[in-house]
Design a protein that fits this description.
Number of helices: 18
Strand order of the largest sheet: 2-1-3-4-5
Largest sheet: 5 strands, parallel
Number of strands: 16
Helix content: 40-55%
Distance between the termini: 52 Å
Structural class: alpha/beta
Strand content: 5-15%
């Protein structure tokens, strides 16, 4: 039976939490201060600790969290917080190892969900099978959410956690063209709401005077043009997922209204008199720095912390150069399936080298647009340097071109990458660190490639 320690100096709340968890079949112990809690943790094995953030003693919940992590770094600690302390609670989750926070007044369904989730992370499952991380390209074949770089692998792991744990608020950040909307779609398609509506809206593309009606709907006669009742996208997305793109563009006044909806899970149509309950997973995205926006007063801090429960950041394409050959191959295959009457095409090694050297200010979207245009307009089976846009061929960029012979029959992308790895090692005299820098990957990734392709380490210097 899973064992839970509850720490709170509020005896009434302590009793309520204990009764709820005992009804769920958990073995519970309660203490009223952090010092006693720490003594119990040293004496007895617990699967979860639930602690109030602020208590009357000097030894507070945050202090208890730090001490618990010294004793058992894997022991999940859930922090109970008032709304005014939400910023501190989010920081404890993000930076100090707290598992999650429970906001007062504690909702029973949220408590049950987070306890179950914490037990899963601990390896003590209450139902279902152990969750598995979605960590490979093959698991997210939605357009071009592909990548083998460390940054993309971390993104896949975080997406997996969001999907398996049923998180209801997610904030996706990243530059324009990096694929934020595709990540939102993947979270929906692979999640437990996949058979429910997925509704997307670009907050920056709607006039300020119309966005409230778009989000929450209106009643007939609510304003001059309201000739009939209209449901807003929150109602349309009920039981499903709502994707709010460019959330940083909405006004401070609308931010206040949106915060209320996220807290209460209910909306009211313009001109309406009753509240309507909605069950929606809200995924927000922005290319703006919301931390700076909070500092300068253009974005509410409470809404930011409400949305930023699970942050997902999309790396720039120039930060994951090693993924470019994979992306190019993926997109070329996509276009070949789309234009079945066209001759299949391949990118030559020197063209691939140029694509890898380019800075890509428009990220993956820019890469896709360039390749799409080239694929449609080119009459050749090979895409070579002469077909690339002039900006990609900027001669001020250092050359990393290798002399690799490709047979007329063609080779697989993996063979091309293998040749580049081998050529880079040869070019640098077998120095792995320099070869990794030349290829734009980490030394660990280079060693992984060497092992995959059967390039024996003794043939090259392990510098």
């Amino acid at each position: 039976m899973p064992s839970i320690l509850i720490v709170d100096d509020d005896q009434a709340q302590l009793t309520i939490l204990q009764r709820i968890l005992q009804r769920e079949g958990y073995d519970t112990a309660t203490v009223e201060d952090s010092t006693t809690a720490l003594e119990k943790i040293k004496e007895q094995m617990f699967d979860i600790v639930i602690s109030d953030m602020w208590m009357s003693s000097r030894f507070e919940g945050r202090d208890l969290l730090r001490e618990v992590k010294k004793i058992d770094p894997s022991l999940p600690v859930l922090i109970i917080t008032a709304f005014a302390e939400l910023n501190d609670a989010v920081n404890l989750v993000a930076n100090e190892g707290a598992f999650y926070y429970l906001e007062k007044p504690i909702q029973i369904d949220v408590l049950k969900r987070e306890v179950n989730r914490a037990l899963q992370s601990r390896g003590v499952l209450t139902d279902g099978e152990p969750e598995t991380d979605i960590t490979s390209t093959d698991d997210f074949q939605i357009d071009y959410i592909v990548g083998e770089s460390d940054k993309m692998q971390q993104l896949f792991k975080n997406m997996s956690r969001v999907i398996h744990r049923g998180v209801r608020q997610v904030l996706i950040t990243g530059e324009t063209g990096s694929g934020k909307s595709l990540v939102a779609q993947a979270l929906h398609e692979y999640g437990n709401r996949k058979d429910r509506p997925f509704v997307s809206i670009n907050c920056g593309a709607i006039a300020e005077t119309l966005i409230e009606s778009e989000l929450f709907g209106h009643e007939k006669g609510a304003f001059t043009d309201a000739v009939q009742q209209k449901k807003g996208i929150f109602e349309i997305a009920d039981t499903g997922t709502l994707f709010l793109d460019e959330i940083g563009d909405i006004s401070v006044q609308m931010q206040s209204t949106l915060l209320h909806v996220l807290e209460k899970h209910e909306i009211r149509r313009i001109g309406g008199s009753e509240n309507i309950k909605v069950d929606v997973c809200v995924i927000a995205a922005t290319n703006k720095n919301l931390v700076e926006a909070v500092k300068n007063g253009t974005f509410r801090s409470d809404l930011y912390f409400r949305l930023n429960v699970i942050p997902l950041h999309l790396p720039l394409l120039r930060e994951r150069i090693e993924d470019i050959p994979l992306l190019v191959n993926f997109l070329i295959d996509k276009f070949s399936n789309e234009y079945v009457d066209a001759e299949p095409k391949q990118v030559t090694p020197r063209a691939m080298s140029a694509l890898c050297r380019f800075n890509w200010p428009g990220n993956v979207r820019q890469l896709e647009n360039y390749l799409h245009r080239i694929y449609v307009l080119s009459e050749n089976a090979s895409i070579d340097l002469d077909q690339l846009p002039p900006e990609i061929l900027d001669t001020s960029l250092p050359s990393t071109e290798f002399d690799i012979d490709i047979p007329e029959s063609g080779v697989s992308l993996e063979e091309i990458i293998k040749e580049y790895v081998s050529a880079a090692l040869t070019k640098t005299g077998g120095t792995q660190t320099k070869a990794a820098e030349l290829l734009g990957i980490s030394r660990r990734q280079l060693q992984h490639r060497m092992q995959s392709y059967g390039l024996q380490s003794q043939d090259f210097k392990d510098d």
